[in-house]
Amino acid sequence: MTQRHSSADDAFEPSIGCRFKVEAAMLSMIEDLRRQGLSTAEIALSLADAAEDYVLRLASCADEDELAARQKPLGH
Fold first, then answer.
1. Among 28, 30, 57, 68, which residue's CB has the most CB atoms within a 10 Å radius?
2. Rounded CA gap, 45 and 29, in Å?
3. What are the helix (H) ranges across 1-76?
4. Rounded distance, CA 29 to CA 36, Å?
5. 33: exposed, middle or buried (Cβ count in 10 Å: 0-12, 13-18, 19+)
6. How far apart are the first and last CA of the chain?
7. pTM: predicted TM-score of the whole model, two decimal places
């Protein structure tokens, strides 16, 4: 896996421990899928699609939370 480079615009940077756990789980899942007969390319493309969908879902939730926070009356 490649190391992600952070920038000043990053709102959230996961901890190294979190990154390690996610990567270990992902590699374990990939090994299991390969044992089930899926090709490396098929797994990689499916994983990329699923990750993109998840990031978009998180962004949508963050947008909704921000909108709700703006709509709250002062003092609440």
1. 30
2. 14
3. 16-35, 40-71
4. 11
5. middle
6. 44
7. 0.61
